[in-house]
Amino acid sequence: MNAAxxxxxxxxxxxxxxxxxxxxxxxxxxxxxxxxxxxSSMMSQSVSVALVDPAASAxxxxxxxxxxxxxxxxxGRGGRQFALTAxxxxxxxxxxxxxxxxxxxxxLPGPALRLRTGERTTIRVRNGLDEITTVHWHGLVLPAxxxxxxxxxxxxxxxxxxxxxxxxxxxxxxxxxxxxxxxxRQVVSGLTGLLIVDDGTVAPSALPDTWGVDDLVLVLQDKRxxxxxxxxxxxxxxxxxxxxxxxxxxxxxxxxxxxxAPRQWVRLRLLNGCNARILMLRLSDSVxxxxxxxxxxxxxxPLARSAITLAPGERAEVxxxxxxxxxxxxxxxxxSTAGGGMGGGTGMGMGMGTGMGMGTGxxxxxxxxxxxxxxxxxxxxxxxPSPPTRLSPAPAVSVGAGATVRTFSLDGGMMGxxxxxxxxxxxxxxxxxxxxxxxxEVWRFVNATGMAHPMHVHGVRMSLLSGDGITPAPHxxxxxxxxxxxxxxxxxxxxxxxLMPSRVPLMFHCHILEHExxxxxxxxxxx
Length: 527
Fold this sequence. Notes:
By secondary structure, this protein is mainly β. The chain is built from five helices and 32 strands. The protein has helices at 2-9, 14-32, 183-188, 237-242, 513-517, and strands spanning 69-70, 73-74, 79-94, 97-104, 112-116, 120-127, 136-138, 159-165, 171-176, 193-198, 215-223, 248-251, 254-255, 258-262, 265-272, 279-283, 289-294, 297-305, 308-310, 315-321, 329-337, 368-377, 405-412, 419-421, 433-435, 440-447, 453-457, 461-467, 482-485, 490-496, 502-510, 521-526. The strands form six sheets. A seven-stranded mixed sheet has the order 13-12-11-15-20-17-18, with no helix packed on it. It has a five-stranded mixed sheet with strand order 1-5-10-9-7. Strands 2, 3, 4, 6 and 8 form a five-stranded mixed sheet that branches. The model is unreliable at 1-47, 340-346 and 349-364 (pLDDT under 50).
C-alpha cells in the first residue's frame, strides 16, 4: 500500500503545474494593482509586508513579559479546574504606546495552563467581549463536544465549560478562538494562550523546568498598527489571498524585548502564533540549538539544528547552552519569513538543516531581531548539567494493511477566488465526511495550488508517513497536529480517528487564518 501511495503522490502533471503557478502569479499581480501590496510575485509567503527590525531603533530596553503559569485548583476529587475570561484590555505592545487589545484574563498572551496526562480537567470560560467567541484547545486530543471549534460558540456575557481527561503526552499546545469568519481578527486582537502538558515521563532534572527562568515560552506573532497605536486588521487584497501579515514581530506581546538569561542550559518553547507568516528562526553567532520536541511531543533524541522553521500553529522545543557565556554576553533570536508562498517551499522532506522543507531559505525576506537574550544571571541550583542523549516520545501512529485511504485536494485561489478543500468552501451545516471511530486511516493532502498550506486536524492523533514519497525527517516524526503541505506537494498522514462516536463535527483546515475564515475548511463526524 505504501508503495502505491508513493507512486500516486508523484503523478504531478508538469504542464498543469506551470499553468497553476502562472495563473496564480497573474492573480496576485492583478490584485496588487487594487491595493494588494505592491508588486509581490508571491515567491514567499506574505512578502508584501516586510518585518521592521527593533534593533534599528533607539527605543528603551524593555524586559520580556513572562507568560503567567496557571497550575489550576485541585477539586478534591482527583480533578483540576481552571478559569478563563476573554476580555478587553490595554497593553504596551509598542514602547510608550497604550494599545487596546483582547486577551484571556486580560493578558496578551494569556496564561499557560499546566495540564497533567490522565487527570480529569475542567476549564470554565466566560465571554467578557461584546461578540461571540469560542476557545479551541489546539493540539489536545479530546471529545468533539468540548473541542471549542465553531460548533461551540460562547455568546457575549455567557459561560462555557470544557471537561475532559487529558490524553496527550508531554507537549506544548495552545488555545485560541475558532469562530468561523472571525478567527483571524480575534487572534490578531490578542486572544492566545498556552497549554503545557506534563505526563510524568520527563524527570524534573532531565530538562530545564524552572518556569520563566530556564524554561521559557516564546509566543511569536506579527501585527500591524495604525498611527495612533491600535492593532490594524484592515485586510488588503493581498492579505485575503496569502493571509494577514504584520510588519512588527512581537514576542510574548512585546516588540523588541530583552530577556535576562542564566549561564546554563535553557529550554525555549517556541510557538508560531502568526496568522499566516511562516517563520525561520535561528540564533546569532551560529549558536546551535538542540530540538527536543515538536508540537506533538518529545522526539526520540535531541537533534542539532542551525535553524527552525515554524508554520502558523506549529511549536518546537529547543535547548540552548549558555553555560560558557561570559557575563553580559548577548545572543539574539533572529527571525525571517521562510519561503512558502507561490513557488516557495516549506513542505516536508528536504530541509534537514534549516527547517521543515525543500526551500526554507529560498525566499526568505529581511532578518530581524525578535528577542535579545542577555546572559547575565548565575546558573540555577540543580541546573541541567548536560542534555539527555535519549528522550521518551509517545508512539507514532502506524498504519496496518488495508487501511482506508482518503484524499483531500487543496485547491482554489485562482484569480483572487478563495482557497478550498475538494473544491468546496466550508458550510457549517454540511458534513463533509463520516469516519469510523477508533481506526487508523491514511489521509492524503494533495496541494494543487502554488503556495504552501499548513494543515491542522482537530481531535485526532496523527503522524506523517511521507511527502512526495520521501520519509519524514527525524524532527517531523512522532505525533503531529499541524503540518505544511508545500506547493504542488502531496503529504500522506496516518490518522487515528476519535475513539468514541460523536455527531458533533471536528474540523480540518488550513491554518492560514484568512484562508480558514474564507472557507478552506471541512468537517467530519465519527460513527
